[in-house]
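Hello,

I think I submitted the acetamide job twice by accident. Can you confirm which output corresponds to this input? Input:
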Amino acid sequence: MASAKHEPVKIGVLYSTSGVTGLIESSQQSATLFAADEINRAGGVNGREIQLYVRDPGSVAANYAAMAEELIVEQGVRLIVGCYMSSGRKLVIPVVERHNALLFYPTLYEGFEYSRNVFCTGTLPNQTCVPLADYMLENFGSRVFMIGSDYIYPYETNRIMKDFVFERGGETVEETYVPLDAPEEHYRAIAARIAALAPDFVFSTVVGVGVERLYRSFARSGLDPSRTPIASVTTSEAEIAAMGAHLGEGHFASASYFQSIDSPANRACIANYARFMGGDVVTNMCWEAAYFQMHVLANAMRKTNSDNPVALLRAIPGMEYDAPQGRVRIDDENHHTWLHTRIGRTDRTGQFDIVSASPERVRADPFVIAHTPADGASTGPGYGIAAGGWS
Ligand code: ACM
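Support: Only one job matched these inputs. Its output is below.
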């Protein structure tokens, strides 16, 4: 472990810039480089520069684990940021546990996990699916068609969402899973099936290259988002920019962060990021989590004057940070993050009109003990969202 006063702080960076989820993970990698640049320009970690060890796992789950092992064993890295698909994260966890390293994971996921060696800064189903179920059933109706990519995150998230829909008097009319690299014809057949079943909305946990194929097939089949919208927890500004705003317009997403958040902190962060990138930028929920977790980590290292995982494990729980989405907090116990949750409707420019927002950040409930926003308030002042519910 580096301890010399001016020795750089080594951080491994495991985001794919190629493969099926290369688009969204590239944004997470850029956010990490941007945050590291900000930290280094501000004097690093008590004078120590952050040195990134960047790898591209190519969206292949086993590569994340192999690269984590290489970073730890060959490069002496003890702090790793990264992973998008849950299949990759699940293989990295035993590696960081075995070597007593830490993983910082900035991606929405299904929850039902705790590792002493992992901090999760993306949303959980209690922070996205609960409000989305409330909003969609209230505004569109109770018959839901569920579609996901064929791996663990969509299975688990749809299982949880089905409970929320059922508890609200709704029903899942059909559930289907699509291979990660399925061609567009596959999605066209599903869009035809959706048109035939005429659900009130479609809940999507499709990730990566499939997102564009889904939305294009949807549009080509004549489905109208004003009558049968897609409501997603995985579609972000990144995928919409890639597919073209016309295909995303009118569909919904639930997220902790949208680029359109009209706050001085978000506007300043985007302006700084545009300067760093040298042109126009598109940000998204995964970009934002990848960005703020680097600053949380840097603050914890400054506070402990150490990059030792044992010292950081004591310092990080309970830490707060003024992120572009608003103030976030790392839970005191469960290694997940209290986040501001929002529902957005895509406009014609590919940005989200925020149609609903939690009045306060929502505590992280990885085991979904509370099935409604109001239950979240029951853990004490400031721990859940305000008793008034959603705006
Ligand atoms: C995911 O697989 N956690 C998006």
